[in-house]
Amino acid sequence: MQTTEPIDRQPDSITLPTLIESYVDTFNRHDLTALGKLFHPQATLVAPINVQVKGREAIVDYVAFKAKGMSIEVENIAVEADTVILGGRVRCPAFRVRAHWHFRIIQGSIARLHLRLVASMQELLPLKDAGYGE
Questions:
Q1: Residue pair 55/41 in contact by the 8 Å Cβ criterion
Q2: CA distances (Å), 23 to each of 17, 72, 82, 96, in order?
Q3: In whole angstroms, what is the distance from residue 27 CA to residue 29 CA?
Q4: Cα–Cα–Cα angle for 67, 36, 123, rounded to 5 degrees
């Protein structure tokens, strides 16, 4: 991602948990307007199948289409270098799988979000049946 703004290399221990909490809350309420405001205008979302979505508006459109009916169950949070890692589960009517959300923060907004599924093969099988493996 190219930006002329300075990058905060060390996470702000006060701001980040609030930002991550806001992400989970707005995602779970499916408040796409509020969710979009959490992202940097030039943000990148990397989906579990390595699809890269670039730009705030494109990310909101992608979430509206692909994450309809999903929610996040938070289990833990960790900070490693300039990344906040949220561990938990993605839940929807067709499945529930373990995942990690890797957030990179720039000046109080999400600059990059990489969602990684950490589920077993048995947990992942319902994804294909639900149309998420395509």
A1: yes
A2: 10, 10, 17, 19
A3: 5
A4: 25
What is d(CA 63, CA 24) in angstroms, rounded to the nearest whole number? 13
Task: Tell me the one-letter amino acid at 103.
Answer: F
pTM over 0.85: no
Query: Which residues, in sequence order, are bridge partners of residue 79?
Result: 84
With vertex at residue 12, the alpha carbon angle to CA 81 and CA 108, rounded to the nearest 5 degrees, is 105
* Burial annotation 50-86 (CB, 10 A radius, 16+ → b, else e): eeebebbeebbeebeeebeebbbeeeebeeeebebbb
Q: pLDDT tens digit string along 51-109?
A: 999 999 999 999 999 998 999 999 999 988 889 999 999 998 877 889 999 999 988 89
